[in-house]
């Protein structure tokens, strides 16, 4: 019976034995086979072959499998082989099999994105959960599940430069996904380690890089063009959305659009996935699925419901699924009455005669200039002084300043003199900060390494001033403070974040600009956060707060807002407007909802513009709340795109329960690893610790070669031993200890997670399978079978046209006496036959396997017919699904073509024809490619693959 190539098949190519791990369509119309070596010369290596270039690919016929007697104690060698096959082979179903076992605090809501991604024909998902819910972990869960299905070998993560190390560590420490970091230091290191001219994206399967590096480095853009991945993750993806009038966003959007074509799976992450405009959000949806939306300016939630392309929830939406995971933050508004010197400076701002193009600025323009200076003064005298000096320099550089400009210069010089009078002792907000840190509610001393402080200001001059004053006034060493701002290099930013998370580091206070307000984990030893100045954006409020108020925070977050009170009516009114934002932020923190719902602008720049306009127009706090907040929350009768899409979050039922574990031959992965390592002579120096469920291993040569190609330099230990534990609690403790490392320490956990996804565990699995030998299967004897009974344990894989196993049929083919072979459930048979660790003593009596070998052909034919029948049933179901999907695509295609005609209706005839042709070609290409992808993914190959795993005979 002819066999076809399929994942899991054993083949001989170029006189060496391989097991096919995956099959992809190749550019020449054939298939690219990704294989792992089995025979001695190629064991532990991987290779890719194009089937059209190989003259002789010999597929091993399962009916010709050679049976051999297993003489190991308790048939342990057979059990290791069977367990390895079980661990390696997972069908492409919709259930979570492994990701929930990672080193993390489990919560039901975290499984939802993975379940959604697995349910899709083509996994393309925007995870848009609110700040602090753990999008990085949710993405890792989905990546893990795809990897065990053979759909995640090559991964590219694109994130911000400050997030590179944090993202890399989270994915490795908790999921053992090794991402090679391509920051400025990593790029140089890789250039030294790989052959000249090699593409690092092809040399390393899993990499992480910043969008800035990809955007600005032409060399890496060229490498990008020549690479393809199984999974691409774009973190903080709102930065790659199309935004009108932002040339920088256009360049990032073009790069993201290019990346989207480089992978079957695309995962986008953002807590702020839209700027309030349908077009901007549509640009992200287009990255996921260009067939989903016909008009980016006019679509509804119903247009996307059938695609299920995004998940967006806030803490209020998942409270029932995350019991006890989020402590409600305690907020304080710390007010300070302005000193007389500050009041003089406030009054000076009101008296400055701002100019524009040489003349006195009138109306709103002049007021906006005043508001800009006032915002700097609300931050600190240092920030206001920098603003004033820059303005004076600009005016003095003019060839011939006008009288009005000279008057403005004189007013600014008077303003600077007023600022000079605001000494630290007369800087009311600063003194309020010092008092607040020492009051009975806070009792912060800076001595406790586990009680650190985060202070935010949007002005770098303010941060520098705080850096110069706080150490002395708090009686702490200067090295207890540092500034984190966007002017630092990628490596320096990552080092600071690392230090702040290391218990034994001297750093106690992190002075942050808003570059640190997105994504960073600052909560390990910090639960206190101070807004030294108040952002004019509710979104920035929540992004800042999310650095300490996030998943995994073990203490109650304490958020302080510093406010100044003035007796000058105009200034008092302006400050009351800002205080409205503080009050709304406190409400959002309690309700744990969407901060964008306050002003409904969805970008910090637009929110700040609303506030600045309100102040410039002299709006009162009551007017501001009524006209800018309440009216924004109650739009007119026109269609409200935002409310339709995001108004209520996504109220979801808990995900489906985790399916029960199938029959395992060892109680856990530690028991499996302990037995597997004992069978590898080259690993003779290993040690085990049953209490810690730990394996200590110095890698032998073949493993060292493998790890050198898989692990980043931060993890790779060329000479030292690796410590792996199957106890998640011990790994978590190791993660915590790593943060205590000194500044020169690697700060990576010394204990790694022993589970099937770890590269060393994968090596054990490959060695076990490879050691069985070419086209062979062991025979087990059981006293629990009838005297005339025998069986074969088999695996039947039903692949799709991409070679991915859609269904894995684990069966026992049983025969009693002269009866025909019958199919029995795999787990049921193994249980009744006692096939489990130490379940069957092995007497090692010589067996005559002739009859069993002769029966194998009929048993394989029985299994083949069974699986082919399953293929027919499954194909009938899938045919209906393919038909439905293609009909849906025809409808979407028609919608895009109709929309094209509407857009071209008013275009000149001379232009219309060319535009129509170009756009129609784009539509044709997109839908043709997607339609073929649907067919390849959903339609099954008519000839399944059958593998003989073991024979089972009655004990004589």
Strand order of the largest sheet: 9-10-8-11-12-7-13
Q: What share of residues are in beta strands?
A: 15-25%
Count of helix runs: 31
Shape: elongated
Structural class label = alpha/beta
CATH architecture of the largest domain, by name, is 3-Layer(aba) Sandwich
Backbone CA Rg: 32 Å
What is the share of helical residues? Answer: 40-55%
Low-confidence sequence ranges: none
Q: How many E strands?
A: 30
The name CATH uses for the topology of the largest domain is Rossmann fold
Q: Any idea what the CATH superfamily of the largest domain is called?
A: Tandem AAA-ATPase domain
Text of the CATH class of the largest domain: Alpha Beta
Major beta-sheet overview: 7 strands, parallel
Please, what is the average pLDDT?
Answer: 85
